[in-house]
């Protein structure tokens, strides 16, 4: 068994030294951010609960408060953002404005929409933290392989999350889909990540919770392996892309990487 513990980190960009020292086959791990390393869905729910409290206590809304938040949630899930059209703040404030108007009727209330949006956003960001055990896992893993954060989404939104969870120092590089020509699952963004680290796709593992982007992208780019984080035990559709490995928590990754490595060694 190749060890994943112990040893001090090699130079920040010195992938070859890290690999040769341990004889590892995996040279880099690409991590998704939302619902892989941070609980984005849980943080968003807490944001919605704060808005419900605000609407009930300050504006005396009753059951409409929940209806408005449900409507916003649906709009967020269907969101189609093109940076050339609008800024994300305008777009998301409009979700709140429309949801309030659809529920309460009357004239549009941009001011209330802004208050709701900023409360939701600030509460959500406050709850976007890297858990201590995730930090420890990343620190240990980085002693052996390069780590890269690969997240889809609008530049401003994702950069605010990265800042909020203070994850920058755990990675050799951070790549935000909204800052690139194409996002996951396009192979080009994975090749860009490989180039940044000076590694080949066959040296890399992609870890993420979304089959259509993280796993499909890793498969499209010909990575060594894809690892699906399936926290809720979802049964995928038969047509879904098939990951190489499935785990219920990102914390299972070090042991899994060790087994990937052993298999690779046996083949050679
Ligand atoms: Mg995700």
TrEMBL record:
Q: Name the Enzyme Commission number(s) assigned to this protein.
A: 3.1.3.29
Which SUPFAM superfamilies does this chain map to? HAD-like (SSF56784)
Provide the reaction this enzyme catalyses.
N-glycoloylneuraminate 9-phosphate + H2O = N-glycoloylneuraminate + phosphate; N-acetylneuraminate 9-phosphate + H2O = N-acetylneuraminate + phosphate
Q: Which cofactor does it need?
A: Mg(2+)
The family this protein is said to belong to:
Belongs to the HAD-like hydrolase superfamily. NANP family.
The entry's keywords: Carbohydrate metabolism, Hydrolase, Magnesium
Q: Which GO terms describe its molecular function?
A: N-acylneuraminate-9-phosphatase activity
Pathway annotation: Amino-sugar metabolism; N-acetylneuraminate biosynthesis
Q: Which Pfam families match?
A: Hydrolase (PF00702)
Taxonomy of the source species: Eukaryota, Metazoa, Chordata, Craniata, Vertebrata
GO BP, one annotated term: N-acetylneuraminate biosynthetic process
Q: Which InterPro entries match?
A: HAD-like_hydrolase (IPR051400), HAD-like_sf (IPR036412), HAD-SF_hydro_IA (IPR006439), HAD-SF_hydro_IA_CTE7 (IPR011950), HAD_sf (IPR023214)
Q: Which domain of life is it from?
A: Eukaryota
Please report the organism this UniProt entry assigns to the protein. Pteropus vampyrus
Q: What is this protein called?
A: N-acylneuraminate-9-phosphatase
Q: What class of enzyme is it?
A: hydrolase
């Amino acid at each position: 068994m190749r060890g994943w513990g112990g040893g001090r980190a090699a130079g920040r960009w010195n992938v070859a030294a890290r690999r040769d020292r341990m004889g590892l086959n995996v040279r880099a791990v690409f991590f998704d951010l939302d619902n892989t390393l941070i609980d984005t869905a849980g943080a968003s729910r807490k944001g919605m609960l704060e808005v419900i409290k605000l609407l009930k206590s300050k504006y005396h809304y009753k059951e409409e408060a929940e209806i408005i938040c449900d409507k916003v949630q649906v709009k967020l899930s269907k969101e189609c953002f093109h940076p050339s059209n609008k800024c994300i703040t305008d777009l998301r404030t409009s979700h709140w404005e429309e949801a309030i108007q659809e529920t309460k009727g009357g004239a549009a209330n941009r001011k209330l929409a802004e208050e709701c949006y900023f409360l939701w956003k600030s509460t959500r960001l406050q709850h976007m933290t890297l858990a201590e055990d995730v930090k420890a896992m990343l620190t240990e893993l980085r002693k052996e392989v390069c780590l890269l954060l690969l997240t889809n989404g609008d530049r401003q939104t994702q950069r605010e999350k990265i800042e909020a969870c203070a994850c920058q120092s755990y990675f050799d590089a951070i790549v935000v889909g909204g800052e690139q020509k194409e996002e996951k699952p396009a192979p080009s963004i994975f090749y860009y990540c490989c180039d940044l680290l000076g590694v080949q796709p066959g040296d890399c593992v992609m870890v993420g919770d979304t089959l259509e982007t993280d796993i499909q992208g890793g498969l499209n780019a010909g990575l060594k392996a894809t690892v699906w984080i399936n926290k809720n035990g979802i049964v995928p559709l038969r047509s879904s892309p098939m990951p190489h490995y499935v785990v219920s928590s990102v914390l299972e990754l070090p042991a899994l990487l060790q087994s990937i490595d052993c298999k690779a060694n046996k083949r050679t």
